[in-house]
Amino acid sequence: MQYAAGTARLVRQLLDEHRRMLDTVQQARLALLDGDLAEARLAHADLQRLLSAHAEREERVLIPDIPVSARWQAAVYLAEHHKIAQLAAGLRRRLDASGPPDGPTRLALLDAHHPFVHLLEHHFAREEQALFVDVPAGRGAGPVLESGLESVPGAEDPADDGE
Fold first, then answer.
1. For helices 37-57 and 74-97, what crossing angle results, to 10°?
2. What are the pLDDT digits (tens) for 41-73?
3. Is the residue at 56 inside a domain?
4. Under 8 Å between Cβ of 31 and 40
5. Is 145 a domain residue?
6. H and E: helices and strands count for the chain
């Protein structure tokens, strides 16, 4: 039963990380809107650290336990993690190469975020509707998630991966 409880705690932590990453993207976009490239660069650096740690944890702790009957197999999650990291790095390069934050520059940088945010939101939805359901069920954790974020009360300390 400890394994199931640890899995439920891990899922709550990963959900909290999803919220924090989306909030960090929003911080970067708001900084761009204000013309503060330095703040946008800092937010993107934070985002890349969060993304890397999050993907590593999922790939180490959850993805190896995806059941054969799962809706999405490991290759889907791994490919999306890779694509998300590529897009985040590309955004960071664009930010780093940007000159003065005039209107057209800010607009171009904001527009460049759309494919990234779209992929990130869809990836998180896939995890919340499948990965965070299939693996806990396979581990005997029961219905950790029933209908997404709203069904999970407060997240625990993200540093504790539930192992």
1. 160
2. 999 999 999 999 999 999 998 999 898 889 999
3. yes
4. yes
5. no
6. 5, 0
- Asked whether the beta carbons of 13 and 162 are under 8 A apart, the reply is yes
Residue 153 lies in a domain: no
pLDDT tens digit sequence for 126-155:
999 999 988 876 665 554 444 333 333 333
State how far the Cα of 13 lies from the Cα of 152, in Å rounded to an integer: 10
Would you say residue 48 lies in a domain?
yes
Q: Count of CB atoms within 10 A of residue 100's CB?
A: 8
Domain that holds residue 107: 2-136
Residue 15 near residue 149 (C-beta atoms within 8 A): yes
Q: Which residues neighbour 38 within 8 Å (Cβ) at sequence distance 6 or greater?
A: none
> CB–CB of 151/22 below 8 Å?
no
What residue type is 128 in one-letter code?
E
Q: Give yes or no for a contact between 35 and 106, defined as CB atoms under 8 angstroms apart.
A: yes
Q: How many domains, the chain?
A: 1
Q: Give the 3-state secondary structure of residue 131.
A: helix
Q: What is the CATH number of the domain that holds 78?
A: 1.20.120.520
What's the number of CA atoms in the CB half-sphere (13 Å) around residue 13? 22
Rounded CA gap, 18 and 124, in Å?
7
